[in-house]
Design brief:
Blueprint: E1 6-11, E2 16-23, E3 28-35, H1 41-45, E4 53-57, E5 61-62, E6 67-68, E7 90-92, E8 95-96, E9 105-107, H2 109-115, E10 119-122, H3 126-136, E11 139-145, H4 160-164, E12 170-172, E13 178-183, H5 188-196, E14 200-205, E15 217-220, H6 231-242, E16 247-250, H7 252-261, E17 264-281, E18 287-299, E19 307-313, E20 319-324, E21 329-332, H8 347-356
Helix pairs in contact: 6-7
């Protein structure tokens, strides 16, 4: 295909959005979603929670400050990305910058997508696309060149959590209480935040039997897909609750904890994805601005006895966190580690580390 190949984003309801293909040139498909974040495209695209999704950025121009070269911090974690690869299936933008003059830029946005073999389409009316998804709800879509027929689904279902979980345990940090982190698609800044809060972290696969390990608490990570599909992880969390192990969850981890406790989850119409979601701490007048990326939510009305809501979304009233009445068990739907986004709730990492000391 040429540099300026015409392409189409075709939604499963038949709606089409035209544009120019850039990045890697290949047809693809997935659930199309949108994020309202103004910055942080590199962190968002490397977030494993976007696995299998076509990510639309609502901000008018993406790639303005380029993409930094990869590096590692003292714990061997990515210092600019949230994982080792782009997890989004494709990218949809109104416009993208081919040149970047920021001091940290190692390459352009388009060249990064090319190197990681991720397709993109530019010149799309992302405002109209976002309004359509808000009205009709998130749906599947296909990104194709002109003349190609769209395909919307794989022949076989995918185990998204298994795709993003690490294959074998790995440890981070040197001092403090030891936490088992169940990796269902963890963002690396979550690990960094726990270590900086004073913990050692044993990161294990999503289906790893960790009960024979010596540890002080269990941490449940974020990740992709329908939480009800992560049955192996739910079983492990259910066992941890029976043994009264101190526990904290984020995003998918919040949903897995809720399901293990006996509550229900449901799919949001178009999800919460961005860096400006206001969450109110129940029983107070405190409102935190949070970073979020989820398409499912916990039904707070289904929480069993002994559990209560901890946070709620100020925009739509959906559940944003739960806590047990007397056990050291809590979780939040939002992302206190930010990356990208505000750090208003970063203190929750220290709160959990202090709970398990």
């Amino acid at each position: 295909m040429s540099q300026m190949t015409n392409g189409r984003l075709v939604l499963e309801d038949g709606t089409e959005f035209r544009g120019k293909l850039f990045g890697h040139r290949a047809a693809c498909h997935g659930e199309v979603v949108f994020s309202t974040g103004m910055v942080g495209y590199a962190e968002s695209l490397t977030d494993p929670s976007y696995r299998g999704q076509i990510l639309t950025f609502t901000f008018p121009s993406i790639g303005n400050y380029g993409v930094p070269d990869p590096g590692r911090d003292d714990w061997g974690l990515n210092d600019a990305f949230e994982s080792n690869r782009i997890h989004a299936t494709a990218v949809v933008v109104a416009a993208h910058a081919d040149d970047a003059t920021h001091w940290s830029a190692g390459r352009s946005f388009s060249k990064w997508l090319q190197a990681k073999e991720v397709p993109g389409i530019s010149g799309v009316d992302t405002r109209a696309l976002t309004q359509h998804l808000r009205d009709k709800g998130s749906m599947r879509a296909a990104l194709v060149a002109d003349g190609e027929a769209p395909v919307f689904k794989d022949d076989k279902p995918r185990d998204l959590v298994a795709e993003v979980s690490l294959p074998e345990p790995r440890e981070y940090g040197h001092d403090g209480p030891r936490l088992v982190l169940l990796d269902t698609g963890v963002k690396e800044n979550i690990i960094r935040s726990l270590v900086m809060a004073g913990a050692r972290v044993l990161r294990v696969p999503h289906n790893f039997d960790f009960f024979g390990e010596d540890f002080d608490g269990l941490f449940l990570a974020n990740g992709p897909g329908d939480p009800k599909d992560a049955t192996a992880s739910i079983d492990l969390v259910r066992q941890a609750l029976k043994e009264r192990i101190p526990l904290f969850g984020i995003c998918l981890g919040h949903q897995l904890l809720s399901l293990a406790a006996g509550a229900q989850t449901y799919k949001l119409k178009f999800g919460h994805r961005g860096h400006n979601q206001p969450c109110v701490e129940v029983g107070t007048r405190r409102c935190f601005i949070t970073s979020q990326n989820h398409g499912y939510a916990v039904d707070g009305r289904t929480l069993p006895d002994g559990w209560r809501e901890w946070f709620v979304n100020a925009n739509d009233g959906s559940n944003e966190g739960i806590r047990h009445d007397y056990l050291p068990v809590r979780s939040v739907q939002f992302h206190p580690e930010a990356s990208p986004g505000p750090r208003d709730t970063m203190h929750l990492f220290k709160l959990f580390v202090e709970m398990v000391r």
